[in-house]
Structures are given as C-alpha cells and as structure tokens.
Design brief:
Chain A is α/β, with parallel strands linked by helices. Chain A has two domains: about 50 residues, RecR Domain 1 (Helicase, Ruva Protein, domain 3, Orthogonal Bundle), CATH 1.10.8.420; about 130 residues, Dna Topoisomerase Vi A Subunit, Chain: A, domain 2 (3-Layer(aba) Sandwich), CATH 3.40.1360.10. Chain A contains seven helices and six strands; from the N terminus they run αααβββαβαβαβα. The mean pLDDT of chain A is about 90. By secondary structure, chain B is of the alpha/beta class. Chain B folds into two domains: about 180 residues, 3-Layer(aba) Sandwich (Rossmann fold); about 180 residues, Glutathione S-transferase Yfyf (Class Pi), Chain A, domain 2. Chain B is globular and about 65 Å long. Classes of the chains: A alpha/beta (about 200), B alpha/beta (about 375). The interface between A and B is medium-sized, with 19 and 23 residues. Chain B: Belongs to the RecF family. Chain B: Keywords: ATP-binding, Cytoplasm, DNA damage, DNA repair, DNA replication, DNA-binding, Nucleotide-binding, SOS response. Chain B: Its main location: cytoplasm. Chain B: The RecF protein is involved in DNA metabolism; it is required for DNA replication and normal SOS inducibility. RecF binds preferentially to single-stranded, linear DNA. It also seems to bind ATP.
Chain lengths: ~200, ~375
C-alpha cells in the first residue's frame, strides 16, 4: 500500500528530515495529517507563507517579515548589543525583558567538525555594525558548549581592539534550583567560578 | 557497598542467570571460556555502563538475540538499589529503581567496582595508552567533574583536529587556547590524584612484596614536566602547541598534549616498564588497585566491590597470601574467578559462596 503511494512515501521522507523525527514518528504524523485534511491544508498554506514572507533581517540576521526587523528599527538602546547563536536564542533573551539593547544573530557557532569556520558565520557583518561606533558594550550570549565558548572567545578577541567592552553571560547553578538536585559537575564548575559577595 | 543479586540475560554466552551473592567472598570457578569473566563484566557494567574489556555493545549481546539485559541489586549504607541496564541496537539504557537515567553522572556511584585482571597487569609493561586510560577511569570514579572535563578536552581536540585537517589557521589560536586551558585543568587533576595515591601505593607495595623497595608514581605530561605545568599553568601547554604548530598543520592533527600523557611506575627510581621483573610489575599493579580501593573508601565512606579476574595464576604463593590477608582485613565484597579453586587461599575466610560456571550456566556449588 505504502510503496504504491508515491506522494505518501515522499511525505514520510520529508518529515523524517525534521529534527527529532524518526521513521515511527514520521508515520504517525503522516497518518495524522491525512486524517485531518483541514488542519493539513492550513499547515500547507502556512508553510508556503513562511517560506515566502519570513526572511533574515539584513541588520541583525534574526527572523522577520519586514526588513529591517521590528527590533532593529525600534528606538532601543544602540550602545549595547547582544550576540546570540540562533534566532531562538534571541527570543530566549528577549523573553526576559531584562535586555534593552539590540541583537546580532551569528546563525551558528564555530565548529570545524561541521565545516563552520568564522567566514560561515555573520561575524563580518557584526564587525561592520561595530565599526559604526555607536556600540559601547557587546554582551556575548552564545551557548555554554565547547563550540559556544570558543566562539565567544573568538569574538572577544576580534572586538576588544575596537575599544568596546565585551561581556559574557554568567553560568552556574540554575535559578530557583535546590543545590542538592543540581548535578555534581555543574556544582563543581559553579564553585570554581564563585564570586565575592 | 554490596551487590546482593544479579540477573543476566542474553549477555555474551550467558542466556539467562540469576545469582545471589555472598556479602564477602564469591568464587566463580570453571574451565576457560565458560562465562566466568562475563559475570564480572556484568557487575562492572552495572557500575559504569562500560566494559573493562573495552567491548562495544554488539560484542556484549548474545549472538542472534536482539538485546542483553542486566539487573543488579546493590546496597550501600543500608539502602538497596535496583539497577537495570539494557544493551541493544538503540545503545545502552539504564534505569535506577525503575526510573530512567539519562545522564551518565547520575548512574555512577551506585556500584563502584575495581578490577584486577591479567589485562590490567599489562599496563605495567605496555605503552602509555593503557596507563592513561586507567588513570582517567580511576579519577572519575571519584570525581564526576573530571568526566565532564575529559569530554570537554576531547571535544576540543576533535574540533581542533578538524581545523588542522583543513590546513586552516583561521581561528586556530582560539581552539588552541581552549585546548590548552582544558588540558591544563586535566593535568592538574591528574597530578592531584597521583599525589594522593602515591603514598598508598608505596605502603601496599611493601605489604605485598615485602622488602624495602620504594614504589612511586611519576607523572609524565607529554613533552613537558609536572613542575613546569605547576609553575606556568596554561602557558606551558601554549608554548608546546606553539612549537609544534607547523608540524601539526602539516600532519593535520594535534600531535602534542595531555591526550598523550603518561605515568611511570617506579621502583627505587627505576621505571618498571623497562627495568622491572614480571613479579615486580604484577605486585605494582596490585598495589595500585589496593590504593584505589583505599582512596575510594576514604572518599565514599565504604569500599568499592573488587573484581579479581583469574588472578591466582598471575601471583606467586607468597603474594597471593599477602593479597588474601589484605582482603580478609578489608570489609569489602570480592568476586574471584579461577580455573582451579585449590590455588585460592580461602582459609580463614569463613563466609563465602562459590559458583560453578559451565557453558554460560551459573550454579551454586
């Protein structure tokens, strides 16, 4: 049955390309889509819409429908710039409402294993923005992975000669967590990075 | 710490077995190739998720069966734990008290096991790899942060190697910096551990071998020296990487660094790899294991379990007797495999259980 249905097989194959979706999940999703044709039509329409409308902002490289994006064309603080790896990281920082400056999305982190060298990231664009002279502090909010840390150091080295302050998010024990439930390795790192009260 | 019971299914050549262990001595006897060591390996896997034989998952699963399942009941400070480990196509999955465990760090410590086997003795005469692997394993059985650091160093190493393979200098200094920093922390932890167990090794070596020979552990960081690392910190490694950069770019890989560190086993200032007799090498590794047991006991408040694989064949009668004396004194659980029960000096050991292992079947005897 499945083999004879070409379009169905193609749907399965396309679904399996999505992160976290394997053979079984793809089958479940595909049957679900067939079962609720109205939802599926809406989904198809929205996929097309996203493709045609959503693009990367030409200034910060976050996702947007109008260029430049709402954040870049707002009157937010121009002296402070937060650098993140992916658009979803921008949303994570923005959700806090604790940061009133602007953003720059690198669209990844350095990873020679995956062929990601500095020229594959939006670093040249970042440096051009900084040369504008308005930015006085760059807040680096890349992930706390080996790759994210290395990217942060790379950026710091590029930016510091411009006389701009470079800061990094703090890391350690998650807020509101009981120390006893935090894994030993994290506590150990937090202990090493302890600060004066 | 005790392992009170274990259930094994489709593991190596053991189709199914349920074994209730004695809290002191457990002797597994039988001819070679019957599955004795597999029982020890199962216990070790329940403690670390890894095999001391360095086997990959497919090697552990009985031929033509989909997966292996190990279940162990362990007790520590009066608290019982049920540990289950699934080994199959989807990898290794663990449960502790029926609850899935996702992080290796949460799994460690339920069963601490120290192994002494003929393969382990080989590290006294082999190249640096076995000794370094042993050192790393010994450190992270007592320090989970070390495991994380070890992963981090090797991740950085892979990334830097990928960059070197492309022959690219772009961003290379940053990866080098990161590697030097993680590498230095790694070396400092290695030095710390060795400093802690060296006096113990010295003491136990005298107890096993008798005589006045002085045992020592000399850390040999690759192409640098311990005092240089202590004095200069990260700069020592940075200088090393700097001096080899051209060669590394040419060869497309990181040729120097802590992933090539070594530790010399020393008797009276002479390295036993090249200058020691077989008897000295065996005694040294045994002393090292006893030191590890003592160290873990101090750290955890309870000794680990000890897995002795076919050891009486490796030690002469006097050393065997000294080992047994040590084991009698330590209130720890011991698992011993042997082809010949008569070689074990079990006199004076009142409580023990023995099992006969034949073609993957384990029966109390």
């Amino acid at each position: 049955m499945l083999q004879s249905s070409n379009s169905f097989a193609r749907l399965l194959a396309e679904l399996q390309k999505l992160p976290g979706v394997g053979e079984k999940t793809a089958l479940r999703l595909a049957f679900h889509l067939l079962k609720y044709p109205e939802n599926t039509a809406a989904l198809a329409e929205s996929l097309g819409e996203v493709l045609s409308r959503v693009k990367f902002c030409s200034i910060c490289f976050g996702i947007t429908e109008e260029d430049p994006c709402r954040l870049c064309s707002s009157d937010r603080d121009e002296t402070s710039l937060c650098v993140v790896e992916e658009p979803q990281d921008l949303l994570a920082v923005e959700r806090t409402r604790a940061f009133r400056g602007r953003y720059h999305v690198l669209q990844g982190a350095l990873s020679p294993l995956n062929g990601v060298t500095p020229d594959r990231l939006r670093i040249a664009e970042l440096m051009r923005r900084l040369e504008g002279g308005a930015v006085r502090e760059v807040v680096i909010a890349t992930n706390f992975s080996v790759e994210g840390e290395t990217t942060a150091l790379y950026l710091a080295r590029q930016i510091k000669p411009l006389g701009i302050r470079v800061t990094r998010l703090a890391h350690g024990i998650p807020l509101g967590s009981d120390l006893e439930y935090v894994d030993a390795a994290t506590v150990q790192r937090a202990l090493e990075g302890r600060s004066e009260l | 710490m005790f392992v009170t019971k274990i259930q094994i299914s489709s593991f190596r050549n053991i189709a199914a077995a349920e074994i209730r262990f004695n809290r002191r001595f457990n002797v597994l006897h039988g001819a070679n190739g019957q599955g004795k060591t597999s029982v020890l390996e199962a216990i070790y896997l329940l403690g670390t998720m890894k095999s001391f034989r360095l086997a990959k998952t497919p090697d552990l699963v009985t031929w033509n069966t989909p997966h292996a399942l190990l279940r162990g009941w362990a007790e520590r400070d009066g608290v019982g734990r049920e540990i289950a480990l699934y080994l199959g196509k989807e990898g290794r999955k663990a449960r502790v008290d029926q609850k899935p465990v996702t992080r290796l760090a949460d799994f460690f410590g339920n069963v601490n096991a120290v192994v002494f086997s003929p393969e382990e003795i080989a590290m006294a005469r082999s190249g640096p790899d076995l000794r370094r692997r042993y050192l790393d394993r010994a450190i992270f059985s007592g320090d989970l942060g070390y495991l994380l650091l070890h992963h981090e160093y090797h991740r950085l190493l892979k990334q830097r190697n990928a960059l070197l393979k492309r022959g690219s200098r772009e961003g290379l200094d940053i990866w080098t910096n990161q590697l030097a920093e993680a590498g230095t922390r790694l070396m400092v932890k290695r030095m710390g551990y060795l400093a802690e167990i060296e006096p113990l090794v010295r003491r136990f070596y005298r107890e096993i071998a008798g005589g006045e020979e002085e045992a020592g552990l000399a850390f040999r960081p690759h192409l640098t020296a311990p005092d240089q690392v202590a004095r200069e910190g990260t700069d020592a490694l940075l200088a090393l990487f700097g001096a080899h950069e051209a060669e590394e770019l040419r060869r497309g890989t990181t040729v120097v660094g802590p992933h090539r560190d070594d530790v010399d086993f020393v008797l009276n200032g002479r390295v036993i790899r090249t200058h020691g007799s077989q008897g000295q090498q065996r005694s040294f590794v045994l002393a090292l294991k006893m030191a590890e047991i003592e160290y873990l006991e101090r750290l955890n408040g309870a000794p680990p379990v000890l897995l002795l694989d076919d050891i009486s064949s490796e030690l002469d009668p006097q050393r065997n007797a000294n080992l047994m004396a040590f084991l009698r004194e330590k209130r720890m659980q011991v698992f011993i495999t042997t082809t010949d029960v008569s070689t074990l000096r079990l006199e004076g050991i009142a409580t023990h259980a023995s099992f006969h292992v034949s073609r993957g079947t384990v029966t109390p005897s």
